[in-house]
Amino acid sequence: MPRKKTSKRSVSNNGDEGVRGARPFWSGTLTFGLVSVPVDLYPGNRTNRAPLRMLSPEGEPLSRRYFSQKSGKELDDEDMVRGYEIDKDKYVVVTDEELERLAPEQSRDIDLRRFVPLEEIPPLYFDRSYFLAPSAGSEKAYKLLAETMKKEDLAGMATFVMRGKEYLVAIFPENGILRAETMRFADEIRSPKEIDLPEKKKVPAATVKKFERLIAKHSAKQLSLKKLKDEQTEKLLKLVAKKRKQHKDIVEVEEPKREEGKVIDLMAALKKSLAGKRKAA
Amino acid sequence: MAARAIWKGELTLNSIKVPVKLYAAVKDQTVRFHILDQKSKTRVKQHMVEPDKGQEVPHEEIQKGFEVEPGTFVILDEEELEKLEPEASREIEITEFLPPKAIPPEYYDRPYYLGPDGDQAAYFALAEALKNKEREGVARWVMRKQPYVGALRVDGDYLMLDTLRHAEEVLSAKDLPRPAGRAPERKELAMAKQLVELLKGEFDPKEFKDEYRERVMEFVEKKGKGHKPRLHLVKSKKKTTSLDKVLSKSIEHLKKQKKAA
Known about the structure:
heterodimer, A: alpha+beta, Ku70, Chain: A, Domain 2, 8-stranded mixed beta sheet, two-stranded antiparallel sheet, 6 helices, about 20% helix, extended, B: alpha+beta, 7-stranded mixed β-barrel, 3-stranded antiparallel beta sheet, about 25% helix
């Protein structure tokens, strides 16, 4: 899929719309057996906390625009299509509608067709994290599923098509809420053989023992989140704060242009969704 | 088909060094499309432009700024950004060892295989020791100007290094309210348990296939040959009935399926 194209028509958000205007990332249906649970999907990861904007020499925020290689003309959304390169410079055009219709109806449901112990899944499969919240009216079935999975200590596995891509997910409860972790498919993981790593040689037992002693010596019970602090971003934010205080290199533009899509508080929307105060659409 | 190493480093534990090569463990199979100009069916060019004037700003004239409040930017020049970069190093420092599953799934980001770079004995000995002790190492290193924290694990006889997300990047369910609504009834719980148990099994990654990807590729090939493949119509969803009725129906249905298999 091409990245979301910049659209001149995208709505600007002045912030006063708040949570009311916030939509979940995606809405769908979670099923197990014949039980279906309408759910809303929210991102569980937050990336790039301190994005830098590209600015003109005068400090004007820049936008990404698309141009025809042939005519050099600027292109609007409707002037562009998606193409798969089957030969050099030869493309097959695939429309949104075709991509949509290539997914059979049942493939859009997150159908939990296998339950496995979460510990059995090797971490290398995990990709991105999402939260599932019950859509209005589905709290009962949602809670039943979350509680059952917790009691049985199991994660549910499913595949589903969302926005032109099929996802494999492991769904498991966390504090009464279902977390959906997208996973890599088996054919997206290389094997040591494919990489051509050398075969294991016999190793001296003394060397193994030496490492075992070191491991025991440096063992901890828990992961300290301090170790995972994003120091790089902290440094950047500090520098920004310092320069701001010194009134150094600051530019102001008249009105912020919001063309890269709405900035919405998905966390607030998720909280609201879980609190069940949302009216059915 | 041997893969190329993407980086070389040295696992360091106390004063012991184990030289390693890093290999990507993931090969992305996503169907990649290009954005085309509809008229000419040729690739498009992307430029950064001033939105009002539509004027392209050449790469070397672009400045980077951090938006401190809407419309106000603090400009950071190349020199300042470079100063923020961590010092380059080949060291992958192992700081501690944790029991398996001490790191929750949502922290894992990208996996890499490690291969020995020279000293094979030390490499395989470390892998064996990790396996025997059932531990996962926590390591930090700087790769391509980025600082990383990762988990050092064993996969069979080999070492893997999974990069981990920053704490600030992972949202915790603990910060969220519990879902509203009444607690499930005992009868419902018993039936749901039965249902889940009928679907219980071992984790087998090969059980799940990206069928949509295959469908898209098949479609693209056919269309490329000038055919017009038929497509499904997208229908809307039906309504469902009461929870316990559906639960008991599901159990019946699955039992039948199991018998038939």
